[in-house]
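F.,

This is the one I mentioned.
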């Protein structure tokens, strides 16, 4: 393997870089997801079983394309993903300061009742374990993987603050929290002068726009960055699960996640196919999956999209999606077919906001 640092920032078609929330940390608009690394004959094996050599190739492709952001979690492969990521950076001779490493904590990493959750004990011990697996002395972004109803939010936030003060963690984020939970955490942070939350990792796609009801307005209000996981809805938005020739022998037949309303989804994919038809990138035809990724990149609240892959060509296809520019008419067509039905209090708030619309003097 090469020992010199890879040229992360060369090339005309590199992804854009954005600050993550209200911070000075800049990340690429595409983030390499590593859930496919290290799976075995378990739930993670259904998602991916890539081993070191295969993972090294994907990491190299991502870095050479200008992606500086890598996301993993302690629970992926029960630590295997973190180990593979850390070794890949060593194998490729990547300078630590050239990459932004993000990992997560919450899931069960042992049989005991304290080997899971967002308690102070679990966070502190798992951070130490993640550092060892990643072969680094700091984590750029440490995220709570979900909400723990058994632990006071104050305890979780104080533990994260301790890790930042110790220098083991640079920034902290959340994943899969409700809007009210995030706002409660922000209130506690401000009252106690703790390290701020700069990011939220959440599910958001053309067939899963629930985030737009409460979470996205909250993120915009509080200047919290949005990282999108499963941007293709578990592969559904590749289009390969819709149509007369679809085989039932696929990953969604064994692991149907995240949930998708197939009736609405088929209409969304139909419009996506129409938009993809005739488009090209570097002489290659654009596919449905690339349209799904491009739509997300056109959404203002989105900071970075987490793209995973099992094969090099799949990752290259995902990266090329950053070059697609959708017209206003195409964006309107996608919005029209995928828009959420209005719910209370949304429709009432929209009506009442009319009282404060600017009016001309004398009216």
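My design for it:
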């Amino acid at each position: 393997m090469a020992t010199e640092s890879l040229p992360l920032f060369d090339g005309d078609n590199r992804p854009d870089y954005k600050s993550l929330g209200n911070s000075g940390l800049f990340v690429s608009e595409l983030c390499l997801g590593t859930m496919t690394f290290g799976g075995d004959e378990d739930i993670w094996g259904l998602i991916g079983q890539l081993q070191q050599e295969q993972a090294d190739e994907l990491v190299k492709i991502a870095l050479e394309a200008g992606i500086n952001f890598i996301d993993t979690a302690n629970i992926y492969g029960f630590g295997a993903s973190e180990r593979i990521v850390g070794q890949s950076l060593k194998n490729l001779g990547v300078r630590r300061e050239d990459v932004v490493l993000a990992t997560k904590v919450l899931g069960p990493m042992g049989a005991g009742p304290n080997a899971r959750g967002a308690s102070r004990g679990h966070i502190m011990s798992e951070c130490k374990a993640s550092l060892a697996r990643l072969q680094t002395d700091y984590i750029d972004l440490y995220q709570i993987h979900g909400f723990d109803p058994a632990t006071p939010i104050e305890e979780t936030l104080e533990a994260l603050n301790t890790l930042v003060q110790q220098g083991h963690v640079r920034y902290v984020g959340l994943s899969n929290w409700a809007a009210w939970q995030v706002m409660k955490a922000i209130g506690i942070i401000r009252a106690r002068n703790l390290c701020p939350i700069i990011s939220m990792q959440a599910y958001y796609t053309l067939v899963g726009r629930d985030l737009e009801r409460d979470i996205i307005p909250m993120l915009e209000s509080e200047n919290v960055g949005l990282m999108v996981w499963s941007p293709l809805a578990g592969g559904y938005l590749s289009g390969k699960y819709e149509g007369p020739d679809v085989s039932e022998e696929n990953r969604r037949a064994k692991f149907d996640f995240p949930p998708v309303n197939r009736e609405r989804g088929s209409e969304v994919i139909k419009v996506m196919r129409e938009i993809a038809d005739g488009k090209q990138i570097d002489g290659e035809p654009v596919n449905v999956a690339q349209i799904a990724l491009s739509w997300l990149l056109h959404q203002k609240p989105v900071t970075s999209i987490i793209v995973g892959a099992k094969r090099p060509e799949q990752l290259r296809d995902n990266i090329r999606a950053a070059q697609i520019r959708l017209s206003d008419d195409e964006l309107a067509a996608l919005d029209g077919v995928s828009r959420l039905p209005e719910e209370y209090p949304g429709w009432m708030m929209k009506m009442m906001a009319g009282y404060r619309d600017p009016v001309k003097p004398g009216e």
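Confidence is low (pLDDT under 50) at residues 1-11.

Talk soon.
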